[in-house]
Amino acid sequence: xxxxxxxxxxxxxxxxxxxxxxxxxxxxxxxxxxxxxxxxxxxxxxxxxxxxxxxxxxxxxxxxxxxxxxxxxxxxxxxxxxxxxxxxxxxxxxxxxxxxxxxxxxxxxxxxxxxxxxxxxxxxxxxxxxxxxxxxxxxxxxxxxxxxxxxxxxxxxxxxxxxxxxxxxxxxxxxxxxxxxxxxxxxxxxxxxxxxxxxxxxxxxxxxxxxxxxxxxxxxxxxxxxxxxxxxxxxxxxxxxxxxxxxxxxxxxxxxxxxxxxxxxxxxxxxxxxxxxxxxxxxxxxxxxxxxxxxxxxxxxxxxxxxxxxxxxxxxxxxxxxxx
Length: 324
What we know:
Layout lengths: L3 H10 L4 H11 L7 H11 L2 H9 L9 H14 L7 H14 L16 H18 L6 H15 L7 H12 L12 H7 L10 H13 L26 H13 L9 H9 L28 H16 L6
Helix pairs in contact: 1-2, 2-3, 2-14, 5-7, 6-7, 7-8, 7-10, 8-9
């Protein structure tokens, strides 16, 4: 297996900008939060223009309008650049999400569906719970939502393969209304919400494996993340070409890899990803991806910054960091 710490050392030798420097020290070098070096590095992140812009855009209720799409992305951005859950922006939006889940707040937006109850009763609680779980994975308010969607997943995969009709019936029975658009177990929000947390599993081992098998081998997309089959390996791209496909593919894999059933597939995917390194044994995306985790460096005009940011994304996957 690749030596992640050794690669982190090499990236640190390249004198990265404040945000990637802090990420490397915190996530790959294991620098103690009690150390002065850690605290100084984190202060540089908190005072970075990227963070100041996020702070300025947050409204008094705690989110960045509109919620669906933009706030979700900003939260992932905050976590990606290294802000911890106690940062005031994340504490404020976490409080807002709890209020949404307690029906004390709303998103101030909606989408037309075949049944008007789909959005407020199914979609909003799922998205809000999944998003809160990125910030506060241990919050007690998540228990109800994890149990609900775990039950649907267990029903969907009770026969060892995906049964959409059984899943739809379970959702219709639970929510008490019929809708053409049910929410499949392999969507982004379900994967985020139901991924194992430490030694705690929310799905049975058989459903966990069946879900991973289905994600890898059967579906043509993971909703909101990637629109192709995960089993089709994607090259990193060459100079002058977009790296978007590789980055979205890697993001989708990072979500699926959180489940126990990933172990069955891990080696062949990791082998391919390692083959995408350049001659210096780093990863470099030819163009900056349009994703929440880019840029980390102050500017992408310098090749070293492109290499640092690109390699950090891959190292996070190899390091089994939580998928977002």
